């Protein structure tokens, strides 16, 4: 038999390439035993799994059974359904997937089989599922939809409670260490929800023009950083006092932000920039006396913007 030829050109590889990722979830808990990465792809319903140790495509395509059905009826109904969000448990055994149809499905990462059924035959929300999160010990599943947040028993798949919110969230983030759910609303407001008692305990107001694009909580949950579009601002909030303590304008709008594990560095990415930029958190090295700023504070245009960190180490002060 003739030897297989390597697909060297982009045109030859294109039919075999997957669409770009829209959401990624991973857990190192069982990375040596089975696939540890799940990826949702743009405009696709099926979620792929990947093996981190072997750096290869995994064994499974995750797709709920109810989306197929008999005679193609369910297939026609869910033909335009896509996976919108996903979350993997810390132990690495399960992945939970949210869909544009309002369905939520739980899969076992080892077997690729679906486990349990949330809501009415998997229907959890009447609209797109915006976020799914699981607490660190797999007790509670949190699903975020338009105008509501639902809390489910992860094992029995039974509904525990529903929290109604005033506006539709743009995205959600879950902070494991403090059991805090952060919701960035379309109105610019950011809410913090205590998952234990399922109550809103902090509200941070932003103008409608300062819609939040991403946020990050420090490891102890006492500080929050938010990034905003239109006016490229990066804001720092004191969660304990619910006050704005820092706000500066950068050259390009930030698209994502994250704290380092020790909270000594802040990483950001920016529009039309390929790099990841690191900012030093001076509060970890010296005692700072920060005065609260008004919630609607915006740096004056005369103040200019803060330049992004350079790619080279400055040696001006090392001599």
UniProtKB/TrEMBL annotation:
SMART domains found in the cross-reference section: WD40
InterPro entries: WD40/YVTN_repeat-like_dom_sf, WD40_repeat_dom_sf, WD40_rpt
Entry's Gene Ontology cellular component terms: Pwp2p-containing subcomplex of 90S preribosome; small-subunit processome
GO BP: rRNA processing
Highest rank taxon of the organism: Eukaryota
SUPFAM superfamilies cross-referenced by the UniProt entry: WD40 repeat-like
Name of the protein: WD_REPEATS_REGION domain-containing protein
Source species: Hydatigena taeniaeformis
Taxon lineage: Eukaryota, Metazoa, Spiralia, Lophotrochozoa, Platyhelminthes
């Amino acid at each position: 038999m003739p030897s297989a030829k390597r697909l060297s050109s982009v045109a030859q590889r294109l039919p075999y390439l997957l669409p770009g990722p829209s959401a990624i979830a991973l857990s190192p808990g069982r990375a040596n035993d089975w696939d540890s990465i799940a990826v949702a792809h743009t405009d696709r319903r099926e979620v792929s799994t990947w093996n981190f140790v072997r750096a290869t495509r995994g064994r499974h395509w995750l797709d709920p059974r109810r989306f197929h059905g008999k005679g193609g009826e369910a297939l026609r109904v869910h033909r335009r359904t896509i996976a919108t969000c996903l979350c993997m448990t810390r132990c690495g055994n399960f992945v939970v997937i949210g869909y544009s149809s309002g369905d939520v499905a739980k899969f076992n990462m080892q077997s690729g089989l679906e486990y349990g059924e949330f809501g009415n035959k998997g229907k959890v929300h009447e609209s797109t599922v915006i976020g799914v999160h699981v607490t660190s010990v797999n007790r509670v599943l949190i699903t975020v939809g338009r105008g509501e947040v639902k809390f489910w028993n992860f094992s029995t798949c039974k509904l525990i409670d529903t929290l109604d919110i005033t506006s539709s969230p743009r995205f959600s983030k879950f902070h494991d260490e403090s059991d805090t759910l952060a919701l960035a609303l379309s109105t610019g407001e950011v809410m913090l929800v205590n998952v234990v008692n399922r109550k809103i305990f902090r509200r941070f107001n932003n103008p409608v023009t300062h819609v939040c694009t991403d946020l990050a909580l420090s490891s102890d949950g006492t500080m929050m950083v938010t990034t905003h579009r239109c006016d490229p601002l990066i804001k720092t909030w004191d969660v304990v006092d619910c006050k704005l303590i820092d706000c500066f304008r950068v050259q390009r709008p930030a698209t994502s932000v994250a704290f380092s594990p020790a909270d000594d560095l802040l990483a950001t990415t920016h529009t039309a920039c390929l790099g990841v930029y690191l900012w030093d958190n001076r509060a970890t090295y010296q005692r700072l006396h920060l005065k609260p700023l008004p919630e609607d504070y915006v740096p004056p245009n005369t103040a200019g913007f803060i330049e992004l960190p350079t790619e080279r180490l400055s040696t001006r002060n090392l001599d």
